[in-house]
Design goal:
Layout (H helix, E strand, L loop, with lengths): L6 H25 L9 H15 L3 E2 L6 E2 L2 H12 L1 H10 L13 H24 L9 H31 L3 H9 L2 H21 L2 H5 L2 H34 L7 H15 L4 H12 L10 H4 L7 H8 L1 H9 L9 H5 L21 H15 L12 H10 L7 H12 L33 H5 L11
Antiparallel strand pairs: 1-2
Helix pairs in contact: 1-5, 1-6, 2-3, 3-4, 3-5, 3-8, 4-5, 5-6, 6-7, 6-8, 11-12, 11-17, 11-19, 17-18, 18-19
């Protein structure tokens, strides 16, 4: 387990990286000065105008991590028509957006954007020439390998430089950013590359006037990109609204789902799970208590022992939540995680009495995270929370009966190394219940939450909220 870099070190690394990229961009511009002999001014201007128009319609990426546009298609056409030199300069200058000049973007950000776009265009142009492409003449069959190589070069330089900048400035895992926010950019580039080839062909065969007509397909491509971004935002907004609805009913559980999601994603990363799986587990953790919307307030907020009838109502909340969420494609099969997060390692949980590794992995992990969070937070039945050490001791004591013993050890090691939270993050990520509510009848020691062991028999345990 590695400790995080100190803040001043991370800032120095980020600034050094920005300076390096800007310097490299300046070097590329200097080394690829376009020759003005025999220049076709109308042709160059048409590419400049089309690039500027495409960049004037950016789409916001999820989590506010930058923007993306359809300008790549025009820059790719510039590469195959005018070559690396013009593409580099147009990439650096014609991509400047109006809002970058209004004080909304720092000088550092403006220079970095200009440099990384110049480097992306330069890489594409140089690779295109290296693989035999000749700017100004297009034969799709002959030049296809060079075009594919140039497209890959542009996309890799563009995405890698931006993701690395976000990684250094926002203290987010490089691969987490790639998988969550940028992986879909590969098909985006793949879809826009043929449009770039078409723009190049029209430029050479019809002229600049014909190229300007291609603003229409650029607008359509941008609209499709916006639909994807809006769909993702709608998913996250839906999750946020659901979590807010749950926690508004019980002030004691405010922040509960967020903390459970934080612990869940941290342990999942420590186990080196795939980032897309981590993201889905994080969403499941946010929504693990959704089924409690169907539990009456008189039961949910009761401070004394639940009656057998009330306990049966409470036990139905995993099934209620899974039923509500099964149509959300973002979660996929991870709805099963929500359904089974109250199962126990020894088979005495609910709703299906599953045991051991038959319980979905995510459900086992979220159960531990939920139990730990409940033990370390105030509850109506226990005003004084347990310390981290006391809560982890309870988790270890119940390992092998209530919890997956292997996951308990990984959880304790990972959460022990997490920094203390100093402020509340956003309500939805970037981006589980624990032990059941105790009702009638005694239970074995390791089947009860630490809260139940310390309170009168029959009150809610640490994972019941």
């Amino acid at each position: 387990m590695r400790l995080p870099w100190p803040l001043f070190v991370r800032r120095a690394m980020a600034m050094s990286y920005v300076v390096f990229v800007v310097a490299l961009g300046v070097y590329a511009l200097y080394g690829l000065k376009p020759s003005l002999d025999g220049i076709n001014v109308a042709q160059v201007l048409s590419f400049v105008i089309l690039t500027f128009c495409a960049e004037a319609m950016p789409v916001q990426l999820p989590h506010g991590r930058g923007t993306v546009s359809t300008g790549y298609a025009v820059l790719f056409a510039t590469v195959i028509v005018l070559g690396a030199d013009f593409a580099t300069w147009i990439g650096a200058l014609a991509t400047l957006r109006v809002y970058e000049l209004t004080g909304k973007v720092s000088i550092k950000g403006i220079l970095f954007n200009r440099a990384q776009l110049a480097l992306s265009a330069a890489a594409a142009g140089l690779v295109y020439a290296f693989f035999g492409g000749v700017p100004g003449t297009i034969n799709v069959l002959r030049d296809l390998p060079a075009m594919v190589a140039a497209a890959l070069a542009y996309s890799l330089v563009n995405i890698t430089t931006v993701v690395l900048a976000i990684h250094l400035t926002q203290r987010v895992s490089f691969w987490a950013i790639w998988v969550k926010d940028f992986r879909w950019m590969i098909p985006h580039y793949a879809a826009l590359t043929p449009l770039g080839i078409l723009i190049g062909i029209v430029q050479l065969d019809v002229g600049p006037a014909g190229v300007l007509l291609l603003l229409v397909p650029l607008v359509v491509a941008r609209y499709s990109l916006q639909l994807y971004a809006d769909m993702r935002k709608a998913y996250l907004a839906t999750i946020q609204a659901m979590v807010a609805a749950i926690e508004a009913r019980d002030p004691y559980t405010a922040g509960h789902s967020r903390r459970v999601a934080r612990y869940t994603s941290a342990v999942a990363r420590a186990l080196r799970l795939a980032e897309d799986q981590i993201e889905r587990l994080e969403y499941a953790a946010w929504l693990h208590d959704l089924g409690k919307l169907a539990v009456p307030d008189r039961v949910l907020n009761k401070r004394t022992a639940l009656t057998p009838e009330e306990w049966e109502l409470m036990k139905r909340h995993p099934e209620n939540g899974a039923s509500l969420l099964k149509q959300i494609k973002l979660l996929g099969n991870d709805v099963e995680v929500i359904l089974h997060h109250h199962e126990r390692w020894n088979g005495e949980g609910y709703p299906d009495l599953m045991r051991g590794e038959a319980i979905p992995f995510g459900a086992r992990l979220i159960a531990i995270a939920d139990a730990y969070e409940a033990m370390t937070s105030a509850r109506p039945y226990r005003q004084k929370p347990l310390t981290k050490e006391e809560a982890m001791a309870e988790l270890r004591r119940c390992a092998g009966t209530q919890f997956d013993p292997g996951l308990v050890e990984v959880f304790c090691a990972t959460v022990s190394a997490l920094p203390e939270e100093t402020e509340e993050p956003e309500a939805v990520p970037v981006g589980a219940t624990g032990l059941p509510v105790s009702a009638a009848g005694p239970a074995a020691a390791c089947e009860e939450a630490a809260a139940v062991l310390r309170e009168a028999a029959g009150t809610k345990d640490q994972g019941g909220t």
